[in-house]
Design goal:
- The structure is a single chain.
- Among the domains are: about 35 residues, no CATH class; about 90 residues, no CATH class.
- The chain is about 45% helix and about 10% strand.
- Helix 5 crosses helix 6.
Length: about 230
């Protein structure tokens, strides 16, 4: 997750927050920070032999929101023997309800990812010195309507989802610019927006303050004392 910048942001504060600068077209930079992403969900699906992810997302959307949250970037979720047990143990050890069903497990991960986006969004705003206007989600993950909406709710911003094949379109745009078929990166983006349909998600609810406080405590390495997050 990151922002586009005409200059790299390489301050001590950026270093402390673990941001990096990735070079792009026209001398621009993407100031970004890695987030775990869909890896926990992929492992949970693999462990339980779930082939219909869309159905699991629907079930997760019907589960109680903000019941339990985890720090998805915690090293224990990198490659555990069982992602299912690791998530449940994390919740248990931090005094939160364990996600018993697969739908509750998925909801825990999706809620936690949305809170991670919120955290990085706040850090990016601090680095650039002004608020973000919207969040764009591209690639395969932009097809997850539940996570898109949770992102909008957690960050309090409009989310624009799409295009799905962002990497291929970026590569194609760069080649067209090199051939002179497109003049600038801004022109390429106008062409892409005119050619593909994007989905928009607006905040429809807010995250309880108790959940935000719980998540911040988890990030700070503190354990809850037997009370759930919501």
């Amino acid at each position: 997750m990151g922002i586009e910048s005409e200059i790299p942001i390489a301050s001590g504060e950026a270093l402390r927050m673990n941001f990096t600068n990735e070079g792009g077209l026209e001398g621009r930079f993407r100031v970004l920070k890695n987030i775990m992403g869909m890896w926990p969900i992929q492992r949970i699906c693999e462990e339980h032999q779930i082939s219909d992810l869309a159905a699991l997302v629907i079930e997760a959307g019907e589960a109680r929101p903000w019941r339990s949250v985890i720090d998805v970037n915690d090293p224990e979720f990198l490659n555990p023997d069982s992602m299912t047990e690791s998530v449940r143990a994390y919740c248990r050890n931090s005094g939160q309800p364990e996600p018993e069903s697969l739908a509750k497990l998925a909801r825990c991960v999706y809620d936690s990812l949305a809170l991670s986006y919120r955290k990085v969004k706040e850090e990016l705003e601090a680095l650039r010195g002004r608020k973000l206007a919207a969040i764009r989600i591209v690639g395969g993950g932009c097809q997850n309507r539940l996570l898109n909406q949770l992102c909008a709710d957690a960050c309090g911003l409009q989310v624009i989802a799409g295009p799905v094949e962002a990497s291929a379109l970026g590569n194609l745009s760069a080649q067209m610019m090199a051939l002179g078929a497109i003049g600038t990166l801004d022109e390429a983006r106008i062409l892409i927006r005119a050619s593909l349909e994007m989905q928009e998600f607006r905040p429809s609810s807010t995250v309880p303050n108790r959940v935000i406080d719980c998540f911040e405590e988890l990030l700070a390495g503190k354990q809850m004392k037997g009370e759930p997050c919501a």
